[in-house]
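User: I'm putting together a small comparison set for a docking exercise, and I want a reference complex before I start. The sequence is below, and the ligand is adenosine-5'-triphosphate. Could you produce the 3D structure with the ligand included, as structure tokens?
Assistant: Of course. I'll restate your input first, then give the structure tokens for the complex.
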Amino acid sequence: MEQATPAAIEVSAARRVYGYGASTTVALGAVDFTVAPGRFVSLIGPSGCGKSTVLRLVAGLETPDAGRVLVHGATPADACAAKLIGFVPQTPALLPWLSVLKNVTLPQRINRKASKRRAPHPDMRELLRKAGLGDAMDKLPAQLSGGMQQRAAIVRAFGLRPEVLLMDEPFSSLDEFTRESLQDQLLGLWNELATTVLFVTHSVSEAVRLSDAVVVMSARPGRVVDVVEIDLPRPRGERLFEKREFHAYEDLIRDRLRGAWRSADIAKAGGAGR
Ligand SMILES: Nc1ncnc2c1ncn2[C@@H]1O[C@H](COP(=O)(O)OP(=O)(O)OP(=O)(O)O)[C@@H](O)[C@H]1O
């Protein structure tokens, strides 16, 4: 992932250790990867390998114990203060007493000053319509299905036009059909707003469908075992699933994941699991 302009995300030898003494857990060994501006990159790896930890480091919610993380050349804390970063968690976390429209416009209203310094923020009514929520704007979150709520959370995250959008398995609780429709909508917004996305998923096919590159991590302590560039044409609609190349990428990533599991087993057998 070489680039001439500064990386949108740079993670260099990032290490993260939790706990003390006998309960020490090395969550991340030394994680290295970069994401160029405007790219869609997914993180995939075995459960507990530290994917969410990487997102928390990039979001500035935690700091690495060694190594460094930069977002557009700034520390994550500074990037957050400048509203460069948006975050979509696994569950939508909408405020139950506000309508959908008020929920998605809340960050813009709170951050009026910060958003004035940057590109004008998008028309949220328009984004809600594009995300298929035109009729749901005045409803309360509890009146929406889980998929609709997650869609609203995604629209909300795009509201401040963050340079970098971090997404932690945002579709994991949704059925296959809703998931695919949300993937389409996410790709539409990403394409239109030229945001950089770092996306955590457990699904190999989701990673291949969405991404420009997939960062494959090993079992804990997490490290990057491979970065697979996904050279498939866009837009990536339903026809993609019929393509041989799509399945070849799935097989390649599954193979890398199997390798990552095997190397972790060997490390554990040698007493280096922690
Ligand atoms: N606050 C914490 N205190 C102690 N250990 C933690 C903490 N947060 C994470 N861990 C440990 O660090 C490791 C990495 O956790 P993390 O949630 O980043 O993994 P993950 O790859 O996102 O997992 P999953 O795919 O299951 O969501 C795990 O072993 C987890 O138990």
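The chain has a mean pLDDT of 88. Residues 11 and 69 are 5 Å apart (CA to CA).
User: Thanks, that's exactly what I needed.
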